[in-house]
Amino acid sequence: MSLKDLPKDEYLLPGSAACPGCPATIGLRTVLKALGKKTILVVPACCTAVIESWYPNSSFNVPLLNIAFEASGAAASGIVSALKQKGRDDINVVVWAGDGGTYDIGIQAMSGAFERGTDFIYICYNNQIYSNTGIQRSGATPYGAWTTTTVGGKGEFPKDMGAIVRAHRIPYVATACISYPEDLYNKVRKAKEIRGPKYIEVLTPCPPGWRFPMDRTVEMGRLAVETGVWPLYEYENEEMTFNGISRAIFEGKYKRKPVEDWLKLQGRFSHLFKPKRDEERIKRFEKFVDDMWERFRKEFG
Questions:
Q1: 121-126 and 172-177 as β-strands: parallel, antiparallel, unpaired?
Q2: What mean pLDDT comes out for the span 160-183?
Q3: Is the pLDDT of residue 101 over 70?
Q4: What is the CATH number of the domain that holds 37?
Q5: Is the overall model pTM greater than 0.85, yes or no?
Q6: How many domains does the chain have?
Q7: How confident is the model at residue 245 (pLDDT cuts 50, 70, 90)?
Q8: In terms of residue numbers, what domain contains 27?
Q9: How far apart (Å, rounded) are the C-alpha atoms in residues 152 and 163?
Q10: Under DSSP, is residue 138 helix (H, G, I), strand (E, B) or coil?
Q11: What is the CA radius of gyration of the chain?
């Protein structure tokens, strides 16, 4: 699939309230092209609940249900059940939630839907913070990152949500990044053809939250993959496949770029480099990435 071959139909329309350079709109535009018109979105409290634009207008050309922060998995289950009662099995029910509504506040409803075997797609667009409410720390925030609630840098490492979801033994789990739209499109297309629960987590670099210029959104995503900070993979029927550069990293055919190259471009990590270089925390971050790839090789090599 080449970028020029993506469908021309647009389901994310002009007039949204997104920030310039917003990665969520880049990702959602690609996702909706893959899903098509017969889609119902479930959106908990997050940036997208604002991006929709001002009532009574909407920049989304598909039905959308806004729901409480903690309830998106339950709401999606209810929609799937209602459609089943009406004899409709041709509509994609999709949760589109941020990392706060996935890693933290919404994890119980998501887990319950996976356990019940609900036939839906759960997409977490991960900007690694509670961006909409003021850039607070989430369970996805990287170690050492500045947020408004971790002004000296976060002291904990993020949850391994991929491992948590894989433990549910659902049919399909994948990661993607807005900087690789063809990969994201193909994974969503595959997920919509699979019955049962599906989970896709999309890295969405946030310019105001990560503190980088708004014209470098795509670059920040690519660098996250090239440094190995964000692996691209598919886990289907308990078989792991790495994609693109991540596959080359896994197979030892591509030398990861230094993690520092990614950290230095983000203002949220600037305190690690000035006024004095924090060697200890930089090395801890690098070791975390090294250990992640070592675990992958031990488990899936």
A1: unpaired
A2: 97
A3: yes
A4: 3.40.50.970
A5: yes
A6: 1
A7: very high
A8: 3-300
A9: 28
A10: coil
A11: 19
